[in-house]
Amino acid sequence: MERSPPELMQGTADILILKAVSWGPIHGFAISKWLRQATEECLGLQDAGLYQALHRLERSGSVRSEWGLSANNRRAKYYELTAFGRRQLQREATTWRNYAAAVARVLDAKRLEVAG
Amino acid sequence: MSRFQFPWKTEARIAADVNDEFEFHVVARAAELEAEGLEPADALRQANREFGDRRQAAAYCRRVDGSSERAARRSERLGEVWLDLVYVFRSLRRTPAVAFTIVVILGVSLAVSLMGYAMADELLVRQLPVADPSALVLVHGELQPTGDEVSTSIADYRDLARQTRTLTGLAGLNGRVLALGVGGTPIAVQSQIVTANYFDVLGLVPALGRFFGPGADDPGTAPTAVISDQLWRERFQASPTVIGSAIRVNGQPITIIGVAPPAFAGPFIGFRFDLFVALGGARALDRTVDPADRSRGFLELFGRVRPGVLPGRAADELTGLAVDLNRSVQSPRDRRFRAAPMTGLDTELRGGVVQVVTLVLSLAGLALFAASLNAGGLLLARGMSRQKEFALRQALGSGRGRLVRLQLLEAGVLVAGAAIIGLILTLGLRHAASLLVPALPIRLDFEFALNGRAALVLAGLVLVATVATGLLPAVAAARADPAQRLRVGGTMGGLDGRLRRWFISGQVAVTFAMLVGAGLLTRTVLKGQAAEPSGAEAIATLPLDVSFANYDESAGRAFYRELLARVQAFPGATGVAYAARLPLGFGNAQAEVQIPGVDPAPGETGFRVETNRVSAGWVETTGLPMVRGRVFSPADLPGGPSVVMINQTMANRFWPNANPLQQAVVVNGRRSEIVGVTDDSRFALPGRPNLARIYLSADQVYSPRAILMVRGPVTSRGIAGLLAGAVAELGPDLPLDPVGTLAANVGLAYFPQRLLGGATIGVAILTLVLAAFGLYGLLAYWVTMRRTELGVRMALGADAASIRGLAMRQGLVPIIWGMAAGVALAAALGMALRSFLIGVSPFDPAAYLVGGVAFLGVASAACLIPASRAARLPPTSALRGG
User: Fold this and answer.
1) How far is CA B174 from CA A4, B138, B178, B282, B348, in A?
2) Is A71 on the interface with B (CB under 8 A)?
C-alpha cells in the first residue's frame, strides 16, 4: 500500500486547477500530469476529483471548454480560463498567499512570555 | 475560441462526452506508464486505479453539465424573447396607425366583453353578502290545488317559526315602498317590514347600533327601524348620532336603532332596500295590517336550514305544520310549502335572466373574436412588407417556431395595450348599464368591480384575444416558403390571400347576422310602440298612495276628489282620470267572479279574471275604444248601483251569443251590472295572451293606491310641474315620485327587447366597422400587389371602369359567400331570440332587407375606396412601382 498524500481542501484544488489552465487551452490529462510534477506528488488530487472540479468550474463560468485534437490526433477536451476565472485566480492566489504566510509566521514564531 | 454553438446537447450527448473525456485520460496515462516499461494490461489497470471512482465522477459531471446546459438554454431563450420584444416595439412604432387601430378595436371589444361579464357576475355568480348563503332557503307558500303563490299571515308565521325543527330560524319580510321624511318633502324608499330575527337568520352584524331584539315582533311595541349603509351616507351624512333618533315614516315617528353592513341592501340581487322596519311597528304604518288575521297573507318567508338537513325536508315540515295549523284554526287555506335556494334572484326570473345573459355574453364573445381575427388580418397585411425580411431570417436559419412566436408576441403586446384601454373604458362606464335601463318603478343597483374573479376573466379574455389575433399571421409565418418568397419578391403566394378571404367571409356572415338580429329586436320595440295608446307621450302618469300619509277612506276619497278637481282646471289638460293599473303595465290583479246562469268548473267556486279599477273619464283619457254600452260617469256614486265594464274577450267567453249589457256579475261578493264592453287591446304585457278582464269603478270601490293620468302637454312647466305642485300642497306627507308618461311606461314593458336590442345594435355596429376595415384592407392589399398587372392592363387599353370593376370583384366573392353563411347564421340567431320577438317573425323579411342593405352599403363604400384608387393609377407609375 502506497502512502497516501494529504487530501486537498476543495478551494485549494480549485485554485491549483485554475493556475494550470491559466496558460492556455489544456486537456485534463495534461493538467493532471502538471499537477503531479508541480507538487512533486506531495498533494494528492485524484483524477476523478480533478474532472469533477473542472466541470464545476465550467458551470460557474471560471473556465470554458472546447473539443479539439491532442498531439497524437485523438479527440480531447481542452479547457481555458475565462476573464472571470482569471480574476478569480488572482483574488484567490492573493488570499492563499496571505493565509499561508500567516500560518508560516505562526509556525516559525518563538515562544511568547505571557504575563500573569 | 469561437462561441458559436450548434444545436443544443442532448442527455446522451453529454454522457458520451464525459465518457470520451475520461477515456482519453486513462488511455493517455496508460500509454505513459507503458513507456515507463509496464505491461499493457498492467498499465491500463494502474491508470484506472489512479483515476479513482470513475462511475461516481461521471455521474457527477453529467449532472453538472446538464444543469449548465439547461441554464444556457434558458438564458438564450430569454434573450431571444427580449430581442423579439424590442423588435416588436420597434416595428409597431414604424406603423403607429395600424397599431393604434388594432389597440382601439380590441380595447372596445374587450370592454364590451368585460361589461357582459360584470352583468353575468352580478346576476348569476355573486353570492348574497350574508353568512353561509348556501344554507338559506326561500320558503314559498302555494295554495292548493291551483299552486298560486301566497304569502303567509303574521299569525301563521309566528306559529310556524315557533314550531319548526328543521330550520335554525324562520324569518319573514314584506317588501313595500314607504315614505321617509327627513325634513322637506318625503322621499319614497324601497323598504321591508321584517321579523325581529331577520338579520340574525341572515347572519349579519350591524355596522352601527344594533339589530332588532326578540320583542320587536310584538304588536304595539314602539316602531323601530334599521337603515342601509347607503341611505345612512346619502341622507344622514354617515352621522353616528342617527342611532336613537326618530324619523318620520308614512307620517309616523320611528326610532332608528341600527345601520346594516355596507354590502347589504336586502336579500334580492339588483334591488336596493334601504329601510327595514320591525314587524311590531307594521300596524302603525299600515292600518290594514292585522296581526291576528290568518286569512291575510303578509310575509314572504325564508330560513336557515339546520346543518345536515335537506331543504326539501324543511319544506315538508312546514307543509305538515301548516296542515295542522289549518285544522286547528279552521282556516280554509290549504297550503303547501316549497323550498328554493336563496340565490337572491327569483326562481322564475332566473330562467329569463340566464337566457338574456347567455345571449349578451355570446354576442360579446363573438364581437371579441371577430375583432381579434380582424386585428390579425391587419397585422398580416402590414406583415407583407416584412415578407422579405422574414424569408431572409428563415433562410439564415431562424426557426419557423421563432417566427410564429414573434407573431404571437406582437399580438400579445397589442392585446395587452387593448386590455388597458378596455379596463379603463369598463371602469369609466361601469354605471353605463344603468343608462340602458329605463327608469324602473323599482330601484336597481348594479356595479362592475375589479376583483380577483374579474381579473381572472380578463386574463382569459386576453389569452383568447392574443391567440385569435396572432392566429392568422402565425399560420402564414409557419407555412411560408422562404425560397419562393425571396424569388417572387414579396408576394404571399396565394395561401395568405385565401386565408384572408375565408376570414372576411366569416366576418361578413357574423356582421350580417348581427344586423338582422338588431333589426328583429328593433322591429319588436317599434311594433310595441305602435300598439300603445295614441298620444301616449302626452299622457302624464303619477302613482299615488295615500296610505303613506295614513289617510282613512274618507280622507283618501276627499284627497282624490280635490286633486281631480284641481287638475281638471290645469291649462291644456284635456282629460283626467285614475286607475289601479296602467295599460301594458307590470303587476297583475285578479278577482274571482260568479256569473248567474254560468256554472264554474267542478270544484271551483267561480271564474278568475283580470281586474282593473278605473275612474270616470279613464276611457276617454286613454282613448281605449268602446265596443258597446257606456263608460263610467261621475253619476256612478259610491252608494249607488254597482257598475262594471268588461272587455271583448270576457264578453265572448261568457255571452258568446247574447248581449252582455245589463247582465249581472258578482265580483268580490258584490253584485254588479255590466254597463259597457271595451276593445281587447292594450293590457296584456307583450307576448302574453289577452285575458278576460273586468273594470271596476274606482269611484265606487275605494283603494288608497291609484295612478293618476292626465292628458295634456307633459312638460316641467306644464302639466308635470302643476301636478307635482298640487300633490305637494294637498298631501304634504306624501312622497312624490317623478311624473312620468304613459309612453315611458309602455317602453318599460319592452325592457328586455330594448336591452338586448341595444346590445345587439352596439355589437352589430362594431362588427360592421370591423368588416369594413377587413374588406378595405383586403382590397387595398390586392391593389398594391397587382400594381404591375393593373398597369399592363391599362397600358393595353383597359379603362378606369373596368379596372374598378376588376378590383371590386375581389371584394365581391367573399361578400357573397359571407352573406350566404350570414343568412344561415341570422336564422339561428333569430331562433335564439324567438322568445323576445313579439309579433315579429324570426325570419322577418324587413329585418333581413334592412340588414342586407345596410351591410352592402357600408361594404361597397369600403371596397370602392381602394378600387377607385386602382382605377386612378397612372399606368407608367404602376409599371415602375411593380
Assistant:
1) 98, 13, 11, 10, 19
2) no
